[in-house]
Amino acid sequence: MTDPAAIDDVSIGGEGIRLGQFLKFAGLLDSGGDVKEAIIDGYVTVNGDVDRRRGRQLQLGDIVAYEGRIVRVCA
């Protein structure tokens, strides 16, 4: 189980956001090219499962992880 203290909350100011957008918005990756590579190569997880869809719609409370950083989608 993930330590809740290790999860950073990132406010998106709305109801949902696409995975690719969120990775950049949260500061996990810098460019669209980096996002595309990381997702396609299976380095990004959503709620503990690898997700290879940049356009996946994230919802409030979803947890995204990349290279040891864990962030939660918040309003």
TrEMBL record:
Keywords assigned: RNA-binding
Pfam families this protein is in? S4_2 (PF13275)
Keyword Protease attached? no
Q: Which InterPro entries match?
A: S4_RNA-bd_sf
Does the keyword Protein transport belong to this entry? no
* Name of this protein: RNA-binding S4 domain-containing protein
Q: Which organism is it from?
A: Microbacterium helvum
